[in-house]
Amino acid sequence: MKLGVFTPLLSQLSLENVLVKLQSLQVSTVELATGNYPGNAHCKLSMLEDAVALKDFRRQLEDNGTSISALSCHGNPLHPDPVQAKQAQEVNRQTILLAEELGVPVVVDFSGCPGDSPGAKAPNWVTCPWPPEYLDVLAWQWDEVVAPYWAKRAEFAAQHGVKIAIEMHPGFVVYSPETMLRLRAIAGPSIGCNYDPSHMFWQGIDPIAAIRILGDAIFHVHAKDTQLYPTNMPRTGVLDTKPYTDERNRGWIFRTCGYGHGAAWWKEFVSTLRMFGYDNVLSIEHEDSLLSPEEGLRKAVQFLNEVVIKEEPASAWWV
C-alpha cells in the first residue's frame, strides 16, 4: 500500500509545483480532479482534443516519477435541473475517456441525487420511511432515474476499460454500504466505491466493519478522518447542517489523519483493507477546517507513513 494525494487541496499551485512539493514529501501518486465540484486545476479534459498538451502532461508526470491513482469528477449527474445534470454527466463521460487514454483504472464520482418528481427543481435526499410519500419518492428516484443512468454509464465505462468508484456521501442516493451494494447490483462490477472512512464515522457506521461488507467493491480509498464531539452531539445529532467552520458548535468535523483517530485505529483500517483485497493507494484528502492545507498535508503524510503496509508480508514457515 502507498500514499497518494487528492490535489485540489493544492489548487493554488501549478501542476509542476504540486509535483515538486509532493516529491519533497516522498509522495509519488496523485488523484487528479477533472471538473464538477472539485474543479480541474491540474487535469484538463481539453487534452482529449489536444495531442500536444496530452503529450506534455504525460511527460511532466513521467519526469517526476509520478503515477495517477484516479481521475475524479465528483458531481451530481442526476440533478433535476437538466442543464446541471448534463454538465455533470458530460464531465464524467470525458473523464472516463481521458482515464482510458492515460491508462488510469479508476474514475471517482458521486452517485448523484434526483428531485422528487420529473418537474423538480432541486435534489431531494430521502432520509426516513415515513410519512409514506417519502418511500414513493425513493422508489421513483431509483427506478426511473438512478438505475437507468448508472446501468448505461457502467456499461460505457466497462467498454473503455475503466471502473467507476462512487464516493458514499450523504445528500446523494448512495451514502452507505447498503446503498452502494444496491447500485452495484443494478449496474454491475464496473461500479464500486471510493471508500472515505470520514463519511462513515459521522453516520455511526464502523468504517472497519464496513470494509468486510463492501469487500471487492472497494476500488479506491481516501485518507480523511472525522472527529466527533460528544458534548454537542446530543443537541445536533449526526445530520448537522451548520457550516463546517462553526467547529465549536458542530457535532462533528472533518480532520486530518492523526487528529481524529490514532495510529492503532488506522493500522487496523489498512490491515483490514488489505485482508479484503485492497492493497493500492490511500489518497489523502484535506478538508480539516482547523489546519491549513499545507500543514494538514504534511501532518497526514508524516502520520500515515507510520501506518501503511509498504511491503509484501514475509511468508510464514507454515505456509
TrEMBL record:
Pfam families associated with the record: AP_endonuc_2
Keyword DNA-binding attributed: no
Signal peptide location: none
Keyword Isomerase: yes
Domain of life of the source: Bacteria
Sorted UniProt keywords: Isomerase
Start and end residues of each Xylose isomerase-like TIM barrel domain: 24-306
Record-given protein name: Sugar phosphate isomerase/epimerase
UniProt organism field: Edaphobacter aggregans
